[in-house]
């Protein structure tokens, strides 16, 4: 059913470790996004990309970085995980064209101990 | 800076009742207003959307009411069912030179009791 895939689904990792959250979509969408969702539910945009080799920071400051080398792949990396990074991370994509709907993955729930 | 404010934060409704979620926005340049529905363990999914040139849009039991002068819009769920229990997000966007980004409300957790 899902055309946008996030792995891993759950990740528990110790402080200081480097992690990469994977996001892939098979729909050929140019635009991709990373959102952080806290237990309080609110969605915060942390990174977005409008195409290959294009990445921008979102509205919420994040210590993570992203890359967009291929259209279908938009990984997010934390060089040194901290407990404050504990959250749910949602990847999304949408086709070009105004008012096109966002397609979300099912998220990665990250816990940093 | 929160440009879209959503209320209530949580809502409990009996089966068959009407669920109403409200949103208010500040930026008059917004011209597209979607609602997203999120079930536990899933990402949000588009439910229904409206443009400001109409005051109401209905899709099945879901209706968006839009008040441009008040800068408010709301989601009405008629004959609410337990399967509607989810988190609902309103959002807004506008054309930008580099694409249209969505600004989300804070979310409303809806529980429909059987």
Task: Write a structural description.
The complex is a heterodimer of chains A (113) and B (114). By secondary structure, chain A is an all-beta fold. Chain A has no helices and eleven strands. Chain A has strands spanning 4-7, 10-13, 19-25, 31-37, 43-51, 54-57, 65-66, 76-78, 87-94, 103-104, 108-112. In chain A, strands 2, 4, 5, 6, 9, 10 and 11 form a seven-stranded mixed beta sheet that branches. In chain A, strands 1-3-8-7 form a four-stranded antiparallel beta sheet, with no helix packed on it. Chain A is globular. The N and C termini of chain A lie far apart (33 Å). In chain A, 37% of the residues are buried. By secondary structure, chain B is mostly beta strands. Helices cover 0% and strands 52% of the residues of chain B. In chain B, a hairpin with a 4-residue loop joins strand 7 and strand 8. Chain B starts with a strand and ends with a strand. The model of chain B has no long low-confidence stretch (mean pLDDT 92). The A-B interface holds A 4, 31, 40-43, 45, 48, 50, 90, 92, 96, 98-99, 101-107 and B 32, 34, 36, 41-46, 49, 51, 87, 89, 93, 95, 98-102, 104, 106-107, 109.
Instruction: Calculate the terminal CA-CA distance of chain B, rounded to whole Å.
Output: 38 Å
Helix content of chain A: under 10%
Mean pLDDT of chain B: 92
Which structural category do the helix and sheet elements of chain B fall into? mainly beta
Portion in strands of chain B: over 45%
Largest beta-sheet details of chain B:
6 strands, mixed
Query: Which range best describes the helical content of chain B: under 10%, 10-25%, 25-40%, 40-55%, 55-70% or over 70%?
Result: under 10%
Helical element count of chain B?
0
Which of globular, elongated, flat, extended, rod-shaped describes the shape of chain B?
globular
Question: DSSP strand (E) fraction of chain A?
Answer: over 45%
Low-pLDDT stretches of chain A are none
